[in-house]
Predict the structure.
Amino acid sequence: MNELVRNVNKDLSNGASSSLESYKFEDGSEVYVGVEEKQKDSSLNQSNQIISFKAINSGSYRTKDYQAYVGYKGPGFDFKHRVSGTFQYNKTKKVVRNVTFDPQLSGTFYSKSEKTYVEKHNAGTHLVNSTGHFTALKVFAQYTTKIKVACIYNGTFNVTEARVVK
C-alpha cells in the first residue's frame, strides 16, 4: 500500500487533479487508493467575477476540497472507505484552518462503522485521520481501513497513510 500512496501523491505533486492506483493479488482480489481535488477560490463569486481587489490579495484565505479513498475488490465482496472535506489555507501566513471531513463507508454485504477526527499537527498542517471497520454479514471476515490526509498551508494535500487490513 505504501507504494500506491507514493504514486498517488506523486501524481498530485505533478499537478494531476485525480489519481487511482491499485494492486491485484493472485486470487483476483484487489486493493486500491485514490484521490481527487477541486480548487475553490473564495475571492470569486458564482459567476467567477472578482468581488474586490482586497478579497484577492495575498492575505486572503482560499478554500480547497480534498477527497481520498481506499477500497477492496474481491469475489462479490467489494467495499470502499472515502473521506472528503474542505480546508482553508493562507500561503502568506502559512496557516490552515476550518478543516472539515465527511467519511463515507460503502459495501453492500458489510456492517460498517468509522471514527474520524482532525489533528492539528502545527499551524500550517492539519491531519484528517479516518478509520473504518467492515464486518462481512454472511462470512466471518473483518477488515479495517485507515486513511490519513495532510492538509497543508500552500493549498495542497496528500495521503500520509492508506491501509486495508484483514
Notes: The chain has one domain: 2-40+58-165. Residues 40-58 have pLDDT under 50 and may be disordered. The two ends are 13 Å apart (CA to CA). Residues 125 and 152 are 5 Å apart (CA to CA).
